[in-house]
Write a structure and sequence with these properties.
Radius of gyration: 13 Å
Strand order of the largest sheet: 1-2
Largest sheet: 2 strands, antiparallel
Shape: globular
Structural class: alpha+beta
Order of helices and strands: EEHEEHH
């Protein structure tokens, strides 16, 4: 992205078929595997389209979460995300 974001680390745009990664992750303090995890998460939004249930969109379905856990460093990514969020109240991925 052109600018740093505090809460959205990645976004998949279905209309333009693009994935945008936050400039906030362009730092030597951010492990490369974590950026890969964010990209992987956003790519899963391509595979798992939102489900409409009772008029509400669900992006992170059980199938989505199951695939997300297949990321080789999933547990490490979750721990890193929680640690950074506690320190700076930053990163989370946004449902696209």
């Amino acid at each position: 992205s052109q600018r740093k974001t505090r809460s959205i680390l990645g976004h998949h745009d279905r209309v333009y078929e693009t994935i945008t990664i936050s400039k906030s992750l362009d730092s030597q303090q951010v492990p490369e595997w974590f950026v890969e995890f964010i990209l992987y998460h956003e790519m899963l939004h391509i595979k798992h389209v939102a489900k409409m249930i009772n008029g509400r969109r669900y992006y992170h379905t059980a199938a989505f979460r199951l695939d997300e856990r297949r990321f080789a460093k999933f547990d490490e990514a979750q721990r890193w995300l929680e640690q950074v969020a506690r320190q700076r109240r930053v990163p989370r991925t946004r449902a696209a």
